[in-house]
Amino acid sequence: MSEITLHDLEKQYGETTAVEDVSVEIRDGELLCLLGPSGSGKSTTLRMIAGLETPTSGTISIEADDVTDQPAYERNTSTVFQDWALFPHKSVLENVAFGLKMRGMSKDDRQKRARSMLERVQMGGYGDDDPTNLSGGQKQRVALARSLAVNPDVLLLDEPLSNLDKRLREDMQIELREIHEDLEETFVHVTHDQDEAFTLADRIGIMNEGELVQVGDPDEVYENPKNRFIEAFLGDTNFVDAVVTRTSSDAVHVDTELGTELVLPTDGEPDVDEGTGLTLSLRPEILSIDGETGRPEAAGKQPVATDGSAHNAVTGTVENVIYRGSTVRYSVSINGSSMFAERTDASTGAHASGDDIRLEWDGEDVLAFRDDGTRVTL
To answer: Which residues form a coiled coil (predicted)?
Structure first.
């Protein structure tokens, strides 16, 4: 039985549709990340689960109970907000115990529970502190402890880490993941940060323009994006315009803006016709530079063999070299178009602006999309 079921959920504000036909089953004990750009409807969806917004249509069930019209205070959910919403006139301990007080728990019991939650989030020595004197990371831990203290069936997190600096945000992602694994409760986490979603999630639900576009395990949505929007949103890639010139039972041949023909292997009759316009996605991790892979640990591939074929290789001129600490990015001009590739080792075989450079890849690693953004099955 699913912990949360959303069925044909819709939310309108006047003539604006914020959420449209969202249906998903959120499993008992999983951590689902709703991921998408600003305005995609992810926070509105979370607020409807919490009871802070009323759906225009559709239903919400928690533990098989229809809670669509149930007020927030009657749902056993708890929400961690982006701005933490701590009471400045209460101590840290009083903040954590506040929800328990509202539920009628005795003072001794709620203080014991609050101290236990503060220990869980590594804030055990701060119970008497003024929350206004805490750092951003400490405030986040207190807000998390307060939400966990009431022992909710579902913990809802609305971009709770977005106000933290990069290093602290990354540390809190790991801590939050460990807390979820320890509690085995159902978490729904909203974020616009792809790295955060991949770090935290058991499954990722990607939203765009109010719709839930794809739901799946992190590796599934990355390796098999449903459309071009997801491919572009989940990470850097090279998009290359192409036109199908001929097809066979084992390959699709395309002419590209790079000035060369490429071959895309297929597992049978491809779902594409001659003359069809395509957009190809060549991720930096699948590209090798002069026969050496840029990120083999990500691509899981050996260097592409240099056999003289132009089908899966192009030559261009380095325009810019950007040092990024752990990687070096090369911007390469090819037939008037620009592509980029990355290397993890800046000291070996380094290139400079003006150098000629050869990029190679396995055709089976290329993703193809139609003009309407839908994925082509190859």
So the answer is: none
